[in-house]
Amino acid sequence: MSVTWDAARELAYTTGRSVQIPTEKVRVDRAVGRVAAAALSALVPLPTTDVSAMDGWAVAGEPPWTLGDPVPMGSRPDAEPFPAGTARAIPTGAAVPAGASGVLRAEHGRVWPGAHGTVLEPSDDAPPVSGANVRRRGDELDAGTPLFPAGTLLTPPRVALAAATGHDRLPVMALPRVAVLVSGDEVAAAGEPAPGTVRDALGPVLPWLIRSAGGTTSSPAYLPDRLDDTVVALAAATVDLVVVTGGSSHGRGDQLRHAIQSSGGEMLVASVQMRPGHPVVLALTSDRRPILGLPGNPFAAFAAFLSFGVPLLRGALGLPLGELESVDAPEIVAQVAPTARGNAVIVPVTWHAGAARPVEWRGSAMLRGVAEADGLLVVEAGDGAPRVRRLGLPW
Ligand SMILES: Nc1nc2c(c(=O)[nH]1)N[C@H]1C(S)=C(S)[C@@H](COP(=O)(O)OP(=O)(O)OC[C@H]3O[C@@H](n4cnc5c(N)ncnc54)[C@H](O)[C@@H]3O)O[C@H]1N2
Ligand code: MOO
Q: Is residue 34 within 8 Å of 319, Cβ to Cβ?
């Protein structure tokens, strides 16, 4: 049941899609990074009325004009009558008074004291003022214009747009709740690891990785390499998704596969044609909650989470899986090809003047390489045409 990297990714995504995530409403100032749970449309036109596009004077009728009071920012367009032959200083963005013929820019007018007040005239090089420098009501959009469909990632500009059209609260997908179980009798939660133990390198960072992929989680729970404990922990994780580290392989102490099977779960992916990370597990609990089993080797765990954990969460949130950017890296293909044996190889690289260079220390049990890297490449260098894609990093 070993599947290709792309097939496993697709399956992780569709498994995520099957998760029922509720929706909620959040204040706009909490909405960035969330996913719209419903289509949103504009509540008001933008601009809401004709507004000045420049600092200058709103003018009525033909020049010369007599200056009246300045237009205050925030005033309504019909606040005061605006007779022909008059002008009022107006700031950028203020409502153009009803009856104005246009806005004369500040640099295109001359003022001087006249017998009945200050007089304004266009300077000799001023372009025609009729209809000029006014952003019309609804120029950008009308009330009711669709802003974005359900399933849209709410980026800062999208939330800004929703706020600009009057939304105070936005319907969003709730954050998928993820439980993190860190397994291994040898894994120490804190301090300097004694010989024979390893310090947990994954528990401290998985919550951040999960949050950056759109989920929510609390502190990891530590799990001994015991079947009954693993079964109980999987059953007790009343969340939307479970991520388990370690114990995903077929060794004597590796309990995850046994625990899934003995508790009536279903294996979806038992191994992936990738290096590192091939013992990754994708499964469902008996009540259909997805389980992602990450290999214990730390670089393998990073590779597997970014390859499948992110698609799982994107699916749950209703986001598209997304395409990975293809890159041209013939030297890396040449290096990887002799040992790839049909596997997708995850290569940590640094970028130098547009070219990727593999880092050292990239063994699956290591962290130095991935810590130094500023990119991860998915390299397929088998019999077919070689392909290199960039795996998005959330940091
Ligand atoms: N006979 C075979 N042995 C192994 C195979 C195989 O195919 N046949 N695959 C190897 C590969 S590849 C990997 S990756 C690992 C995966 O093993 P598990 O997921 O079962 O993980 P463990 O055995 O529990 O641990 C492996 C390794 O990682 C260390 N570890 C575990 N958790 C953590 C943690 N939270 N922080 C830091 N380090 C951790 C653990 O101490 C082990 O050294 O299996 C290979 N073996
Ligand atoms: O998942 Mo393993 O990393 O290939 O060592």
A: no
